[in-house]
Write a structure and sequence with these properties.
Distance between the termini: 19 Å
Number of helices: 3
Largest sheet: 8 strands, antiparallel
Strand content: 25-35%
Shape: globular
Number of domains: 1
């Protein structure tokens, strides 16, 4: 997903994410922020508001930011790349998006530095109280969360595309090839 220049690297980073998101929504998606080395750019989905998932009372909210970095020892065609600096994938429930069910987070700038999961069972009176903990995870790809939503044995959200499995497999393969870390983020992030 690297590119020769910042604009090319941004396009290569975010285009697969847009393709993956189109499996669940037609909501507006754009990339905002300074497109220059050192700039932090954000994926803005549905004006940062939760999206209603088809045929359910579930909602999904996506936040993802990345910094454009220069890679000096790379080939000229790969001198610019993006490094994720934050993600938050949140599943909500209700006629309005009022109750969070779970959220996959990684936001090292505000802590904790590890990727983690929040499970919000306390908002459901029939379930036991579970304090808001940061349950450690490995790095979570957007495609994995979308697959969880679309799998007929899991959340049973209706896909917007018949080929959603193929799309998510392809976009995740690109993510896996381009990522700079998996389970434990590097100390310099």
């Amino acid at each position: 997903m690297p590119g020769r220049r910042p604009r090319e690297a941004v396009a290569r980073f975010f285009e697969p994410l847009l393709a993956a998101l189109r499996c669940v929504t037609e909501a507006p998606v754009f990339v905002g922020g300074p497109i220059e080395v050192g700039g932090e750019v954000a994926l803005v989905v549905n004006r940062n508001q939760p999206i209603r998932l088809a045929d359910t009372t579930l909602w999904f909210q996506v936040q993802l930011k990345a910094r454009i970095v220069s890679v000096r020892d790379a080939a000229p065609s790969e001198r610019c790349r993006l490094r994720t600096t934050l993600y938050a994938y949140t599943l909500l429930a209700g006629d309005e998006p009022s109750r969070e069910l779970l959220a996959y987070h990684w936001h090292p700038a505000i802590g904790p530095r590890i990727p983690h999961l929040h499970v919000y069972v306390a908002s459901h009176p029939a379930l036991p109280k579970l304090p808001r903990h940061h349950l450690p995870t490995s790095r979570v790809a957007l495609e994995d969360v979308l697959a969880l939503l679309l799998d007929k044995n899991e959340m049973r959200v209706t896909a917007r595309r018949a080929d959603w499995r193929t799309v998510l497999r392809r976009t995740k393969a690109g993510f896996l090839r381009g990522r700079s870390w998996d389970a434990e983020p590097p100390a310099d992030l």
